[in-house]
Every structure is written in C-alpha cells, then in structure tokens.
Amino acid sequence: MVSALCAIGLCPLFSIAAIFAGFRALVEIKARGDTRGVRLAWASILVGATITGLWGGGMLWWNINVRSMIEQGPVHAIVDGQSGSVESFLDIFSSSSTPDEATAFLHSLHTQYGTLQSGHLDEDIAESPVDGSNLFLGMVPIEAELSYVLLFENKKMVKMTAQYDLFLPVEGGNKFTNRFAWLRIQTEEDGVLVYPAQLVEDMVQHGE
Questions:
Q1: Would you say the C-alpha torsion 101, 105, 110, 116 has a positive or negative sign?
Q2: Which residue from 175, 118, 125 is spatially nearest to 147, judged by alpha carbons?
C-alpha cells in the first residue's frame, strides 16, 4: 500500500520511493508466504518506474534544450556568427530578420571588440520578483530579460542584455518558442548596439 500511494504521487521522489517500497513488498510477501499483494506491488513498481523515467527524460530534455539556450544561447550564436555561420546566429531569434542585418550587427560588434571568446549569465544581477501569472508550471518565467557578461579577445568585459521568450502568446493560448527577441549591448562608441535594428525605433517610441 505504501508503494501504491507513492506511485500515484506524480513526484520523482515519491515514484523512486514506490519502486523501492514495491520490491521490499515482494520480499516481504515471499518471506511470509500467506500475504497477498504481488500484483499491486508489481503495478506500483511499473507506475513508479514510468513516472521516474518521464521525469528523468523531461529534465534531460529541459537541460539540453531550454537551460542551455538560456545560459549560452546568445553567446554561442555570436561566436558562430562571427565564425561565418550567420544562419546559426539567426536561429536563436523569434523575430524575423535578414542575413544582411545580422551581418551588420556582427560586423559592428567585431569592429569595436574583436572576436568573442566566451560569455556567461551575469551572476551579480539580483533576481527580480516575477508575477505568478507569468510563470510556466509555477516555476519558470514565460519571458525574462537576462543579463550576460561577454569576454572578447582584447580581454574587454562587455555587458549584454537579452529578452528571452519561453512562450509567445498566440490566438488560443501560448506557443512554445525557446528563442530570444532581441540583444542589447551598451557600447563605448555608438552608445547602444541592438539586434534586430528595428528594435531601436520600438524602444524609443516606448521611452525605453
């Protein structure tokens, strides 16, 4: 019964407990000889294993596709773009743009700072509270403005801000996106370098 209750808990900790409790139940049933419940124990083990597998597969998929996009998506995109793969740079954005616009942005970035070596999320940025209605599964923001630190070949540290969209609103609900809307870099020469370029006009109109 403990195994069965844990199996229907739909939580990875409970589902793992269901597996161990189920095997323990089988040992107890075999040792006593007059105790029923073999089918229930095996059913609990099967359900627990299935739920555990789903949770494990989901977490693996999340880390490979979503978490890696959040942590390194813009960084890898710029590195690939500066290496000549403009398509890889364009692929991380939800907004439409032309290869020429992407090339112009990458050229401006290279002219001022050279080749990007590495980058990471800015750990010094404090987490800001997020409206509960803007959370997926009550845990992950549907959209977020993220800050990064970029390290270029001249050892120059540059701050970059990016708008990340896990979902985009569509008619009838939300569409899984896992892309970025824009990048913004505060430069020393031109003030602000933004991609896509059209965003500059939109931000000025909204007073940002």
A1: negative
A2: 125
12-32 vs 38-62: helix crossing angle, rounded to 10: 160
CATH placement of domain 72-205: 3.10.450
For the chain, which residues make up each domain, given as ranges?
2-56, 72-205
Residues in the chain, overall count: 208
| CA atoms of 78 and 59, how far apart (whole Å) | 27
Handedness of CA 73, 182, 85, 88 (dihedral sign): positive
- 182, 162 Cβ separation under 8 angstroms: yes
DSSP letter, residue 100: H
Contact yes or no for 141/130 (Cβ under 8 A): yes
Q: With 0-12 CB in 10 A as exposed, 13-18 as middle and 19+ as buried, what is 168? A: middle
Q: What is the pTM of this model?
A: 0.76
pLDDT band at 94 (very low <50, low <70, confident <90, very high): confident
